[in-house]
Design brief:
This protein is an alpha/beta fold. The chain has 2 domains: 15-194 and 231-255, Rossmann fold, CATH 3.40.50; 197-229, no CATH class. It is 45% helix and 15% strand. Strands 3-2-1-4-5-6-7 form a 7-stranded parallel sheet, with helices on both faces. Strand 5, helix 5 (161-181) and strand 6 form a beta-alpha-beta unit. The longest helix has 29 residues, at 111-139. The chain starts with 14 loop residues before the first strand and ends in an 11-residue tail after the last strand.
Length: 268
């Protein structure tokens, strides 16, 4: 791969699975991992987006493949892991990024929505851990699991009952997995992004009247003491660190990538 300011060898010879990788944070992570020498398997429901993303990584000199899958289905997860091992021989890194964020309170969230959010955002982590940990153990060199939580896994947020609940659960399962598999040399950590400029954010903005979108975006910026909204690469660099040997003494941690959002006692 041609060397650029964002390329290197920090993950050379490693193989990574990244879920929710068709766009946004997941694509940012997959692209940066490939730029640092990893073989990357991109996973999402959107096969068209996956194909385009994978072609882009390969065109840039990276090593990548994709598997379209519903991460909430055990058989689909097992197939992702099987195909990754068949193609690349092992799995060293798992990034659980897939997620959905419907609005709703206890009074407006249907049972179907509640279950789907928990299945995609939380149960998928259990399913992937159950399938990937044995591969990491058998490989004899451990591994790194990075779970993408949210600042809403650290703080409550109005009208996001299912999402915030699921992201609090992500932090819980991260700590439990870290405790269970430290002796297997498998590190498990979570990242907690603040507002990031992704397609998910723009879908939320589309629900706001066009005349109010700029003001809404500015209100998001003001939530972060650094005065800006993050980009997928901000989360990707943090994920690269946690996936690499530079973080060899870090497990069970939850790291905010939030422009200072969680450092405030209250928000306007």
């Amino acid at each position: 791969m041609k060397r650029t300011a964002e390329s290197g060898t920090r993950l050379a010879g490693k193989t990574a699975i990244v879920t929710g990788a068709g766009h946004g944070i997941g694509l940012g992570i997959a692209s940066l991992f490939a730029a640092h020498g990893a073989n990357v398997v991109l996973v999402s429901l959107n096969e068209t987006a996956l194909d385009e993303a994978t072609r882009s990584i390969v065109a840039g000199g990276g090593s990548a493949d994709f598997v379209a899958a519903d991460v909430a289905e055990a058989a689909a997860v097992a197939n992702v892991v099987r195909r990754t091992v068949e193609h690349f021989g092992t799995i060293d890194i798992l990034v659980n990024n897939a997620g959905i964020m419907p609005a709703g309170t206890a009074l407006t969230t249907s049972e179907e929505t509640w279950r789907r959010v928990l299945d995609v955002n939380l149960t998928s982590i259990y399913l992937f851990a159950r399938a990937v940990v044995p591969v990491m153990k058998n490989g004899g060199r451990g591994g790194s699991i990075v779970n993408i939580a949210s600042v809403q896994g650290l703080r409550g947020h109005p009208n996001r009952l299912a999402y915030a609940t699921s992201k609090h659960g992500v932090i819980g399962v991260t700590r439990a997995l870290a405790a269970d598999h430290a002796t297997d040399r498998i590190r498990v950590n979570a990242l907690c992004p603040g507002t990031i400029d992704t397609p998910m954010l723009h879908r939320e903005l589309e629900k706001v009247a066009a005349s109010e979108r700029d003001a809404t975006l500015e209100s998001y910026r003001r939530l972060h003491p650094l005065g800006m909204i993050g980009e997928p690469r901000d989360v990707a660099w943090a994920a690269l660190f946690l996936a690499s040997e530079e973080a060899r003494f870090i497990t069970g941690a939850d790291l905010p990538v939030d422009g200072g959002y969680t450092s405030l006692i209250v928000h306007e």
